[in-house]
Amino acid sequence: MTNLTRRTLVQGAAAAGALTGTGMTDWAKAWAQASPFKPEANAQLSLLRWRRFVEAEDAQFNKMIAAFTQATGVKVNITSESFDDLQPKASVAANTGAGPDIFWGLYSLPHLFPQKCVDVSDVADYLGKKYGGWVPLAEAYGKLGTKWISIPVAVNGGYINYRTSSIKAAGFSEVPKDTAGFLELCKALKAKGTPAGFPLGRASGDGNAYAHWLLWSHGAYQVDDKEKITINSPETVAALRYAKQLYETFIPGTAAWNDASNNRGFLSGELHLTANGISIYAAAKISADAKQREIAADMDHSFWPQGPVGKPAEIQLAFPMLAMNYSRYPNACKALMAFVLEAEQFNPWLEAAGGYLTHMLNAYDNNPVWTADPKNAVFRESAKRSLVAGARGPLNEKAATAMADFIVVDLFANFCTGKETEAGAIALAERQLRRIYR
């Protein structure tokens, strides 16, 4: 079997309808002439992005950057880092005043050092007016007060990935829509030898998604809207107890999982239900391994179950793009950000990503990627359903730090693995939050 992980590149053809060759270059040159964002003379940019998971997405992104260079003369050097390494590198750059001009990062990265970000309000206003407005999640991640400190390019939606035959064999016709039924499904899957599994390790994407869903779906939150710490609550206790019951149904080893682990387990056939982006399905569909193609045919996706709060309570992985104020070429940075999100570029790129990325501008709701395959459909809603880092509290440096420090992930890991008692796990999280919210 081919050893595919989340970091294995998904093969795929270029998106249908994409501008190619001379057509893309001609359009880009016309755009550069008309655009209100004019790069500085002799500008050159360096861009550090999250490491690609879908090869067709990366190929299409590189095409649009090449067209930008041909149209504007601005050379763009692109490098990539893993999810877990990108934030530390951005923080070092912010502290030292040296590094890439643009960071394309995760979650609330710009809110870790908002004073170091270029004001891109003009870019956000231009794009919002042209493309049907931004979803609320984009404004939360992109703005500090009334000022835009980043352009929220997309989110990576993560939902329940499951083997259809396995849940049917466990006695279920679909993934239950409530947490009580979901627990019963996971118990039944374990009994059938086709277990579920979710990461309790410090996985920036999947670990944060799972832990925050556990907390928020039970009505527990880190802080309230006044930044009063509220983690020590009956709702947190209920979330911990529910999480422990779920953990007991899991495949072994989830306490040490990173963002690649559940992909690997699912594609090996050992794992039958988890939460992830569409990358597992995308990889399996076009795999050279017939067994993995069989997995793709037998799997589907569903929304996160709703807990006692009775409404969606999920966090999706936002990908904001920010320019650092030490850059010598802030206008070139703005021009590149605007260029990426223009329809002629963004629509083909969204299709190339195959559902791995979800838009933040309302005009892209009708992109054919969401209807070409019914198994893609739930991911279209991810940007509109997601809460933000901190949930009830303001999205600022404190909320961003709490996310970066994995406080909610560690809360559940400490209790579920027996490292801490219920009270001990909560007390530790509370101390960590008090150190941040002071």
From TrEMBL:
Keywords: Periplasm, Signal, Transport. InterPro entries: Bact_solute-bd_prot1, SBP, TAT_signal. GO terms for cellular component: periplasmic space. It is found in: Periplasm. SUPFAM superfamilies: Periplasmic binding protein-like II. Belongs to the bacterial solute-binding protein 1 family. This is ABC transporter substrate-binding protein. It comes from Phreatobacter aquaticus.
